[in-house]
Specification:
- Helix content is 15%, strand content 41%.
- It has one domain.
- It is built from one helix and four strands.
- It has a four-stranded antiparallel β-sheet, covered by helices on one side.
- By secondary structure, the chain is of the alpha+beta class.
- It is elongated.
Length: 104
């Protein structure tokens, strides 16, 4: 068991998720719960209670692909990787430069 008090080295407990594992888990949860294809993680940050991960998905596939509707989800995980909450924070067309919210 690690005894370091340096908070920049998260996680220190063997039962806690590493950053890459938290990202993988968040992407898996979003794919499972939305039934949509994840593109990948856009952000990850440790929190006091676990991890906060941003995941981008293809919400509606269109032709041409530049017309695809994408969405950004925020996923909260506890230190062990269990899902605490998720929410869609943005919806936008692929390539939209202003990151417009809730485009339809």
């Amino acid at each position: 068991m690690a005894t370091s008090k340096d908070s920049s080295k998260a996680p220190v407990d063997d039962n806690e998720l590493t950053t890459p594992a938290a990202v993988r888990r968040a992407v898996e949860y979003i794919a499972t719960f939305t039934g949509k294809q994840p593109i990948g993680a856009t952000s990850v940050e440790p929190t006091e209670s676990g991890w906060l991960v941003g995941v981008e998905i293809i919400e509606e596939s269109r032709i041409p692909s530049t017309s695809d509707m994408l969405a950004l989800y925020e996923v909260e995980l506890d230190l062990g990787g269990e899902l605490l909450a998720y929410r869609r924070t943005q919806r936008y067309r692929r390539g939209q430069s202003d990151g417009g919210k809730d485009a339809s």
